[in-house]
Amino acid sequence: MFNTNKLYLYIFLVLAASLLSYILQNHIIKENLIIEYFQEQMGYERILRMIETRKEWAWLNYLFLPIIYLIKFSLISFWILCGTILFGYKVTFKSIFKVIIGAEFVWLLPSLLLIIWFGIFDTNYSFNDIQYFAPLSLLSLFEATTIESWLIFPLKSLNLFEALYLLILALGIKKILKMDYDSALSFTLPVYGSALIVWILFITFLSINLGG
After folding, report:
1. What is the per-residue pLDDT for 4?
2. Cα–Cα distance between 3 and 26 in angstroms, integer?
3. Are 29 and 133 in contact (CB under 8 A)?
């Protein structure tokens, strides 16, 4: 994967993510689920207008996805580049960026798993079931509706997909820094791990303050 042309890899990732998003929005998150979820919070007519607005502007999700990915990959690449400078390694931003793109394919798996689960195995589900669907995470050990809302994101973020992402990221780092895998993992764990912790704390802080 890391040997594939960076542009082709990026385009394929965007197309794959867009396809999964389309299936999720059009075949999993059904209108009746939205109506049922919001019926106690707003009137029926207002819900229908919200659904129509959602349909009308759905194309924006696909338009902004490449931009969102570009920003995300750039921030992670910059953070890792700072780590390489701190640890005395020499590597280019472009090579790190390509590694980040390759590792990002891991995050297609949770969406794919969600689609398969609710599309085939558990077809009698609610909007809450989708919202709190977090297999292989710490959140799956709790009843999401009974814990503090600010705990949802950190518990959901600590999952096996994150661990798999870290392992694949280390594999890419091994290639571009020309080191053994153990050394690459020893470098990647604190560098990427620190970024993850900062991100979780930031979102949790926003959740507590905006939620309060």
Report:
1. 65
2. 34
3. no
Q: For the chain, what is the total number of helices (H) and then of strands (E)?
A: 10, 0
Q: Taking the CA atoms of 41, 43, 47 and 50 in sequence, report the sign of the dihedral they define.
A: negative
Q: Which of 203, 95, 117 is nearest to 154 (CA)?
A: 203
Q: What is the pLDDT of residue 17?
A: 96
Please give the Cα distance from 138 to 156 (Å, whole number). Answer: 6
Q: Which residue has the tokens 């930031």?
A: 202
Buried/exposed code over 60-92 (b: 16+ C-beta within 10 A; e: otherwise)? eeeeebbeebeeebeebbebbbebbeeeeeebe
Segment 148-175, tens digit of pLDDT: 888 999 999 999 999 999 999 999 999 9
